[in-house]
Amino acid sequence: MSLWRIILKSLRQHWLSSSLAVFSIALGVALLVSVVSLREQAHNNFTQVGLGVDAVLGPKGSPLQIVLNAVYHLEEMPGKIKWTYYQKVLQEPLVVEGIPFCTGHSYAGFRVNAIDGRFLTDFEYLPGKHFSFRPEDGGEGKPFENRDEAVAGWEVARALGIRLGSAFNPVCGVRAGDPVHVNDRIRFVGILGRTGTPHDRAIYIPMTAFYTLEGHGADVAGMAVDEQHREISGAYLKIRRLPGGALHPGIMDLKYNVNQSPEAQIVVPTEVLPNLFSIIGWVDKTLLAIALLVTLLSALFLLVALLSALRERRRDLALMRSLGATRRTVLGLVLSESVVMAVLGGVGGFLLGHAIVAVGAAFIRVETGLRFSEMYLSWADVFLFPAIVVLGLIVGAIPAIQAYRTGVLKNLVPVS
Amino acid sequence: MAIIELNALKVRYAMEGEALTVLDIPSWHVDEDEQVALFGPSGCGKSTLLHVIAGLLAPSEGTVRVCGRNLTAMSEAARDRFRARHVGYIFQNFNLLQGYTAIENVLVGMTFSPETPDRGLAEALLAEVGLAHRLKHYPSQMSIGEQQRVAIARALAKKPELILADEPTGSLDPIRSSGIVAGLRTACRKHGCSLLVVSHEKDVIAAFEKQVSFLNLNRAFAVQETPA
Q: pTM value?
């Protein structure tokens, strides 16, 4: 019989306390794994996805609100900017390209954004990546051309079962109960291939469609032709880059000049988004602290289980000593038992944690459109198994030392 | 050749600040292949002597040589390894691991010796003590006599040169006691190992050719061999 079998045998003998200890470790580890994974993926989503837009020209107001609305299709724009001012910014030598858009409409819980047609053809949602209508990418159809045509993001099409030719009436607003443009029927002519970005969860219509929606009235309809009075929600700006890919440092001056004006502001997503994490940092840290606390408590539970098992096993260990097991051998047996339970809990927690991420990812995708993967490996996953072995060794040390000190004669034989 | 050699052996315990000598044996030996019965009153040090010979207890003075090795010069871990390889030990009670079947108990007996655990040998030994049909039974499912026979098989499993049995029949009735001891003696002869049995049962002791009694000499105990 190998020492390994003796360890498994002992675990089976104390299956209830062993199982509870393993389960408690699994819970602690699962919480840790899932919190860290969601935290890291959220950070990646908000920092990497924003790179598709060098800068956003938006109205005065909260820069974070502008980025969340323009890039992530969340929140609402704090106001509007004049088309003429946008044209003026476009003349700046550092601005390579601009894509104007109007937000504020929705359909079935998804945002309906009026946007310049170049968004569908020229815009890079990630460096070097353009939207695709190819079936192999999950798309179909073509970009919109007329005011009564729309293109659905991949997630919207999947969630609402949109097919080419199906039509909808946009809602004037983004809240439940906002009025519907009952006389404006817009037909889907294209579905975008999957991008894995928030752009998957919006519907896009032409700018002209926005101004000429029947319920908007004559003043807004006039903006379709009258550029002097036209207003937009904002514009994605492509800024000149230095060789090597970094944004031209002149953007700081441009941003200063624009932000000094009462008309608009330039917001760089990669500068603003870290603020989001400083705002929600306390939630993040609290969750991490809870996860660590649960893991610590589960370690204590493991210690109690081991000590309890040891009390019942002293005679067995003494008997093994009488059969020739050295003190180091019984120390190793108890330590190994602790490590085995910790590793079993770690494996269970790893799987459970990623299952939690999978469930959480589904909810987050529905609520925000952000994509999280249950397969993502965070720093917690990388260090999990070495850390869990160390935890098992530390927790097992106390009962192992007690086992080491177990006296054969004291625990086994009556002296005659 | 002597399998056990004791010289100027003393074992003392500290009792309320004073050293109490519980064993004092100037010189004694057991020859190879010999089977010896030790007897004496309760508390006279019989078990203590077995513990010393098994390396479970280090003597306060003197030398203990077992199977040609000087145990008194060994560390505790070395004595453990020595016991794992050379000495089989049978206790009166608490003999088997309760969570292990008969075959597993025998296999555990081999685990700590250098020999690779041999399931075939374990089964053969259990068959030899009449328990071929009890391989997968737990101690709680066996009688005390059967448990002792498992313990005998376990002691033999590591192919020891010496078996020490401390009151192996203490919990049995006289008829069963004689049967168990007779089986143990036969097995030891067959496997070529020496046997030292501690007992207080006259029938058990009487069966041995060499009997050794403990005598009380000035608060210490010594051994005196009684010819058969």
A: 0.73
